[in-house]
Amino acid sequence: MMVRRAIQSSIFLCAVRVLLVLALTLFVKAPPARAELQWETAQREQLRLRIVALAAAYPRSSVFSTDEVFIAEMQISHDESRLVKLIYAFLPYQPRLSEYGLDYSLVHEMSALRDPSCDESLHQLLTVQKSDGSVERNDIKYSTDSPVLDVKHERGILHCYRTTPEEYAKAIHDPVQHPQFSLKLRK
């Protein structure tokens, strides 16, 4: 009987110690952990653009995302625009952007993410370096009635934007009398 009481009292003392430790940890205030993200969250931009040319269209995957790469004229203001690179990523069950038609008179409205990591010059976008070191011009497919690209006079870097079918809003038919830039690469 004495042994039983000794065991019960030691169990009781252990339980009291555990409760005391828990109470102290709850009442002692430690400074809160500070977790701050060190990168900016990406902001989507609303774009209005015309497709000038389809620069690359990869075979549709039956499992993974597939990309189409376009050269587009982005409308900055009513009378100002610039060339940009647009990467349109779609899943196997989603439509390609090129299926809406490569027509320069269509103004496409969408939101897109600016991605500086894929910026490149028009020359880089339109040429492919082969394994033997030679450079070959990439075959591109122009939109109907689009201006012709002039690689020799286009020295700037094309800003790159990424978008998906979920971010595509609509296409508006808006014929252009005179393109904002004259480009002369088309054969």
Please estimate the helix content: 10-25%
Strand content is 35-45%
Shape: elongated
Please identify the structural class as seen in this structure: alpha+beta
Tell me the distance between the termini: 106 Å
Please write the string of helix (H) and strand (E) elements: HEEEEEHEEEEE
What's the structural blueprint in terms of helices and strands?
Blueprint (H helix, E strand, L loop, with lengths): L1 H26 L16 E14 L8 E12 L2 E11 L15 E9 L5 E2 H5 E3 L5 E3 L3 E2 L14 E7 L4 E6 L14
Parallel strand pairs: 3-9
Antiparallel strand pairs: 1-2, 1-4, 1-8, 2-3, 4-9, 4-10, 5-9, 6-7
Annotation keywords:
187 residues; 5-stranded mixed beta barrel; elongated; disordered C terminus
What would a concise description of this structure say?
By secondary structure, the protein is α+β, with helices and mostly antiparallel strands. It is 17% helix and 37% strand.
Structure description:
- The chain has 187 residues and is of the alpha+beta class.
- It has a domain at 46-173.
- The chain has helices at 2-27, 122-126; strands at 44-57, 66-77, 80-90, 106-114, 120-121, 127-129, 135-137, 141-142, 157-163, 168-173.
- The strands form 2 sheets. The chain has a 5-stranded mixed barrel with strand order 1-2-3-9-4. The protein has a two-stranded antiparallel ribbon with strand order 6-7.
